[in-house]
Amino acid sequence: MSNSTIQDLLSKQDLNFPCPGSHVLPCQPKAQGRPKAAEAEARLQELVVVAAQLFMEKGYNKVSLEMIAKQARVAVRTIYVKFGGKAGLFSAVIAAGRNHFFADMDDLDTSTRPLRDVLADFAMHFMDLVTSPVAVALHRIVIAESQSTPELAQAYYEVGPRQTREQLIRLFARPDVRAQLRDDVPLEMLAVQCLNCLMGDHMRRLLFQPDSSPPPEVLQRQLDIGLDMFLGGALRRPDTVTA
């Protein structure tokens, strides 16, 4: 992957997200006159962006902490203190990207909209995330290197797929939502089947055919069908819905 391609993937549009644990500053260069605490925050955000760039350019195993620290202009010790090491920094890249794509979505724990509307909103944000060039590139890295580096796959799962699944489980566990769903299907299975119906074979096609992403109107139609299929099997019949 060329440097110009990496720069395209890491444009501000793709990576203008808060660093994990932050809800204030976007990834941007340090500005003069900024308080020291804010400068440190901005430096950490820059570190996450640099790490993402290097991971995608060289792969996970070929990137050293020294390489990341030098390009991000921080001490290696800073990476250990803030992220616990390379796997933790990779987790921060995944978490920050995920936070960016879900930032403007209604909170699934509190939204009062109809269930289908809530899930339709989630579906679009979810698909925007998993089909983004950055996410696809990082997914390829995990698949390619997970056998030799098990902690990489674990880090990816914990802050990516697991968080999304638990997000849906919390939604389906809400009393007002649970009353609408079949009580003979465990919450975790509901979450898994929801994601499967929404995802279809999109990720498989993107991994092996990078330019196969459908036009927005086609994707929307596919998501609508997937959501209807999920709700058709997950919702209780009208005569069994509890008050």
The CATH homologous superfamily of the largest domain is termed: Tetracycline Repressor, domain 2
Large-scale geometry: elongated
Range of helix content: 55-70%
- Give the quaternary arrangement of the chains: single chain
Count of individual beta strands = 0
Look at the structure and give the CATH class of the largest domain.
Answer: Mainly Alpha
Query: What is the string of helix and strand elements?
Result: HHHHHHHHHHHHHH
List the uncertain runs. 1-35
What is the straight-line distance between the termini? 56 Å
Total number of distinct structural domains: 2
Keywords: DNA-binding
Domain HTH tetR-type: 41-101
Organism: Pseudoduganella rivuli
Protein name: TetR family transcriptional regulator
Protein described:
By secondary structure, the protein is mostly helical. It folds into two domains: 83 residues, Homeodomain-like (Arc Repressor Mutant, subunit A); 137 residues, Tetracycline Repressor, domain 2. It has 14 helices and no strands. The chain is elongated, with a radius of gyration of 20 Å. The termini are far apart. This is TetR family transcriptional regulator. It holds the Pfam family TetR_C_7.
Which properties best describe this structure?
mainly alpha; 243 residues; 2 domains; Arc Repressor Mutant, subunit A
Summarize the structure.
The chain has 243 residues and is mainly α.
What is the strand and helix layout of this fold?
Blueprint: H1 3-9, H2 12-15, H3 36-58, H4 65-72, H5 76-83, H6 86-102, H7 115-130, H8 133-145, H9 150-159, H10 161-173, H11 175-178, H12 187-199, H13 202-208, H14 216-234
Helix pairs in contact: 3-4, 3-6, 5-6, 6-7, 6-9, 7-14, 10-12, 12-14
DNA-binding region: 64-83
Domain HTH tetR-type: 41-101
Protein name: TetR family transcriptional regulator
